[in-house]
Amino acid sequence: MMLKKLCCFVWLVLYHLLLPAFVSSKDHGNPANDLVEIINENRTALKLPKLNDSPGLGCMALQYVELCKDNCTGNRAVNCKPPEDDFTEVFAPNCGVELPTFGTITGHIVGCESKYLQPSEAFSHVIIKDNKALSLLRNKSHKEVGVGLVGFHKGPFFWCILFSDGQTNSTFVLEDRGKGIKQKTGCYSGSTFPCSCGKKISVLLNNIMTLVFLYILLFQLLHQNQFLMI
What we know:
Layout: H1 2-26, H2 31-44, E1 52-53, H3 55-67, H4 85-95, E2 105-113, H5 119-127, H6 131-137, E3 144-151, E4 157-164, E5 187-188, H7 198-229
Parallel strand pairs: 1-3
Antiparallel strand pairs: 2-4, 3-4, 3-5
């Protein structure tokens, strides 16, 4: 009876480890794109027009938070304000934004958290943390939006949203559609590049090691049981 209960427990643990792995294998989404969808859902609920997802803005948003990696305060605020010239002299060139297409940035929201949050949680707890951010999100002058996010080793996660009043395909245009961007960490909305998956790989390896250990344990228990029956 004890052996039967132990076997059931092992199979239950295997099930709970395999199910998330199966679900994550089906999830090829970009959390930055998910945030753009949530932003637009919030706007359309108030009968405001959707914002166009701009890869150029998204890439610059990622550049913004990468620059502010050591400035996360305890109340999820980012104590970092890059000079305005950095947008045209640093962020845009790093992203390959064609300078003649650089438009007007009508607002930005930046936040951080000690751990990664799912897009819906990040939206509620980090991005829309006060009435000022909510008012900015619902500004009628916005036409485009870009989202960037990044997490650092043993450090916090950062989110940045940039807004613009530019028109699709005419402002913040990426050279060669962004193919020359060498993205090593984080992700941004509208990108064709996958997000950095180091954390996912680490979790997957831990799960595999646990599965191997449990499989060996189960095999030994079954083998011992057969030996006793003989």
